[in-house]
Design a protein that fits this description.
By secondary structure, the chain is an alpha/beta fold. The chain has 17 helices and 14 strands. An eight-stranded mixed beta sheet has the order 4-3-2-5-1-6-7-8, with helices on both faces. The model has no long low-confidence stretch (mean pLDDT 92).
Length: 415
Amino acid sequence: MNYSETTRWLFSQLPLYQNVGKSAYKADLSKTLKLAKQLNHPEFKFKSVHVGGTNGKGSTAHMLASVLQEAGYKVGLYTSPHLKDYRERIRINGQMISKDFVVDFVAHNKSFFVSNSLSFFEMSVGMAFDYFAQQQVDIAVVEVGLGGRLDSTNILNPEVSVITNIGLDHTQFLGTTLEAIAVEKAGIIKPNTPIVIGETQPATETVFRAKATKEQASIYFADQLIDEINSTSLKGDYQIHNVRTVLQTVSILNTGSFIIPSQAIKHGLLKVTENTGLRGRWDVLCTSPKIICDTAHNREGLSLVFKQLSAEKFQRLHIVLGMVNDKDVSSLIGLFPKQAQYYFCKPNVPRGLEASELARIFNENGLEGLVCQSVKAALITAKQNASQDDVIYIGGSTFVVAEICLLYTSPSPRD
């Protein structure tokens, strides 16, 4: 198989969460451990930082990788999902994993994958860890996929673990209260391993402190410890929380075997997109009219984005919006601006919510808009209706932003 055929197999051969949702979720580490043994345990062959949380874990992981790269280290970065190319998930110093490695890894291990019914995510984690081990990275920054305790990435023994914050997302898997979700996220807290909590939340602080005490892990609440904030190239106002988390994590790494000078921290935070290729976080795609996309898709994330959007200057606001069909749309309606023109669309994944159904829910709550045939059509229509002094916001789902990013070239593509 060539690269295209290989990725098609990865996406279609076995259940994939972004396509089918809950049925793809495997709350068990046994198959990941079996794969790790098959690969001769690559997870033990490199140092790592493990990053979980509800919102901001992707941004935090990219910032950490950028800072470590500026400090002169060979840095692996594993994140999910991707926006344009599967290889975005696995990078070293910003450069995506080669197509040849993806093809060869799948070809060599395909019979094992099939005979053991491995999930898409299990295969991807195995590929990332094997790649980082073979390439002998100095350290890898690894983002949790879903939850923490039973996530496939949780076979790592990191230098430091990070939990950015807790919000009500993926409740069908992780629980319906902040405390229950915190228990799952706290599963990445390891024995005698420092844990950084990005944001202190009354409902979850006790959970994290109890788990840290049980594991004899030093615990640090970044928002209680970090006052001075460095600037970052990531433009969302909400990034201030992630910067604090990064600074606290770097401080811990600096007490160990890593040397990360202040200049590396400064330059790393200012060159996140350039160094790591991060997209979709308050991503300004055009200035006339101003077009902004953001992957925020739950209550906490959308609240922060719309707060920042309300500070923008514009004559009219246009919102290109799509969601997935397992999202509780009604619970989010109150967050959306009433004075906006909406363009409803369906992201091109099986889980995509039909645009007509999304429009119906919004219309019943007094928010009017147009039903569009695709994400691309929705953006075209919004641009046709917008003046140069208007703002177009695109979001509601990572998959909507992914389709938009295909239309706009990355500022620093790295093959």
